[in-house]
Amino acid sequence: MLRGMYTASNAMQALQRQQEMLSNNLANVRTPGFRADQASLRTFPEMLIQQSAVNERTGVRSKGTVGTLATGVFMQAATPNFAQGSITETGNATDLQISSETGTPMFTVLHKNVNELGPAERGETLYTTNGQFSVGADGLLRTSENDVVLGEDGNPLNVVNEDFVVSADGAVTDGNGQAIGRLGLVVTTQPEELERVGNGLYRSPQELDVAPVKVDQGVLELGNVEVEQTMAEMNAGLRQFEANQKVIQAYDRTAEKAVSEIGRVR
To answer: Are 106 and 185 spatial neighbours (Cβ–Cβ below 8 Å)?
Structure first.
């Protein structure tokens, strides 16, 4: 069996998945709140190779360990990097940027899949780092995917129109200074436990804690993709892919020679 061919093909599949992940990162450089993925590559479980032989003089069978054999690599996971992205000032009242010294801050939103839930059913509470919001026709503060932004009390924030003010501690008031509520801001110290569900939303295995978070209105956080590093990783991955491709080609030529020349009956 040409084990090296299978090892190289596994590596090519892992590198292809890594390239797809890096391409997605580059495509979301300007996406507000986007968190770049990082690939985790690991080897398949190693095989322990042993040999068994019979002593012709004594007839006793003996065993010995030859060593271990790696069986290839695979991409185990794509883990989001929750480092802060670049900051840009927009001047829009509905653009909010959050930061915290105690962990990773996130907005709380109510996600409702209209294809699965009825009109009277409540959706799922999820979290996002995307602070680009808008005011819906119903006066509720909503995400770009039309999910409802929740307040500290777990209820939707009805800001009526874009004439509202958000203070540094997350308190929301209307244009006349009347209190509307407070943003539902949470902080996690273990962002690696979050599950990405798409469209910049994350699911937590347990309810996240409310903690002090600084809010800046009229400011937006973009993606945290490092373009130069990502391009370098893509180039390195391409070279590794080509190297494994040449290994498979070498095995193919060897097999062809074994069939057409060495195995020829004269």
So the answer is: yes
Which tens digits make up the pLDDT trace of 69-119?
A: 667 788 888 889 999 999 999 999 999 999 998 899 999 999 976 444 444
- Torsion, Cα 75 84 223 104, to 10 degrees, reads 70
Rounded distance, CA 182 to CA 175, Å?
15
Residue 53, classed as helix, strand or coil, is strand
Using DSSP, state whether 19 is helix, strand or coil: helix
Rounded to 5, what percent of the chain is helix, strand, coil? 25, 35, 40
Residue from 130, 135, 133, 149 nearest 199 by CA: 130
What global pTM score does this model have?
0.78
Task: Give the alpha-carbon dihedral of 103, 38, 202, 226, to 10 degrees.
Answer: 70
pLDDT tens digits, one per residue of 57-70: 776 667 766 666 66
Dig out the tokens for 188 from the structure: 């996690």
Residue with tokens 């030859």: 66
Structure tokens at 61: 């069978």
Is residue 157 within 8 Å of residue 142, measured between CB atoms? Answer: no
- The residues, any chain, with a CB within 8 Å of residue 6's CB and separated by 6 or more, are 71, 72
Helix (H) or strand (E) holding 252: helix 227-257
Give dist(CA 219, CA 221) in Å, integer.
7
**CA–CA gap between residue 196 and residue 207 (Å, rounded):** 15
